[in-house]
Amino acid sequence: MEKAMNEHKRRTRSRESRKKQLFLRVGITVLTLAVLIFGGMYYYVSTHPLKLKGDVVEQEMGEPFDPQAYITRVWLGSPGEVSVRSEVDTSKEGDYPVVYEWRDHREKAVVKVRDTTPPTLVVKDYSTDLAEEIKPELFVEKTSDISDVSVRFEKEDDWSQEGTYTVRILAEDASGNQTIEEASLTRKKDTQKPEIQGVQNQTVKQGKSLDFTGGVSVKDDMDPKPSLEVHSEHVDFATPGIYKAVYTARDRSGNVEEIVQKVTVEANPEWNEKIVYLTFDDGPSDNTKKILDILDEYKAKATFFVTGHNQKKNDMLRIAHEKGHAVGLHTYTHDYASVYESEQAYFDDLQKISNMVEKVTGEKSRLIRFPGGSSNTISRKYAPGLMTKLTREVQEKGYQYFDWNCDSTDASGNNVPVDKLIGNATSSQAKHINILMHDTDAKDTTVEALPKIIEHYRKQGYAFRALTVDSYAPHHQVNN
Q: I need a surface site. Which of 107, 141, 183, 466 has the fewest CB within 10 A?
């Protein structure tokens, strides 16, 4: 009995021993595997401390590129600590290399910048007549894209008849991305005539002319650019009488409007006379009194286009006016840069010299001579197209501007030889002669030449008159 119990105990101990050995072997195996796994992981991570999402990066053109956003792991560090070398230009499609460096490890990727976003297209409905050429741009209110956008019809149909149509507008960017939107086209027959505005009957003095299109415009309900023709060939400005000018407006649908303007040409006593208009720019000066004395001696009248430079001599202007000479407006400052800076700048300067002349003479002058004449090109430097506007606007405001058709050339320098001035100033044989001279302290030879100039023309039967707004007004070709 005792022997059997001992045997049972021995066997029990043996089984327990085997279990312990089994558990020990399993534990050793598991531990070994864990060591191998974690060791392998440690080795991999330590030899690959930097990991990216991929070696190819898709980047939308025009969107900001953040190279750190493509880093998935930095061993013992953060994405912000990784050095990045890149020349990615998101404004242009292309493949750009990017190099990431962390400690001694380097990873490379290629950033593919592509435009995959279709353009924005906003369309509008359009209504028109049967004559207009239908273009896709008529329906486009706005397009936007990172690149250039072209528009076209997805399909062109026959839209030539009255009615309402659905059109599909296709916008395509430089990468071929497309957007299509629908709009409505309404076509209807246009039977309404264009409207001519601004035509009024006119009265002019014999020898003067009219700007027949000045202040005249044409409006139409459908055609943004209706044509306008003016037939004024039967108006004879050289002969007093009543004439007709015919204005004809036509829209693209063929609708026609016609207006007749009455033009009355009044007799001008000066027209049939041979007249010399002596004109002096830039005064008053120390020479103004000498000029007035010569004019008195020869019983001749002249015109002074004055400035605001020498106002201590303004009493000479009062005397000139009292003697029957004309005092006109040249410029207050004679500074081209400021006078011709803009339309407003010119009229501000004109108002200053006008106020000065009116204060001195008691009369408002409507006689103008532009600094440099209407043909000057210096104004182009400050305001392109300015003289084209000013020559029209001053007349619309009731002024008349006077260029010249005979130049003494005394503006070419001081002390120009007297004989040269006389030769230039007496070279004209026109019926009405407007001679350009200058009245400044330095123009002594102009004063010396004046008697011979007057004597020459008087022998030819010319009278010497002061300018009025109805006098013959030579106008140069406008170059700006």
A: 141
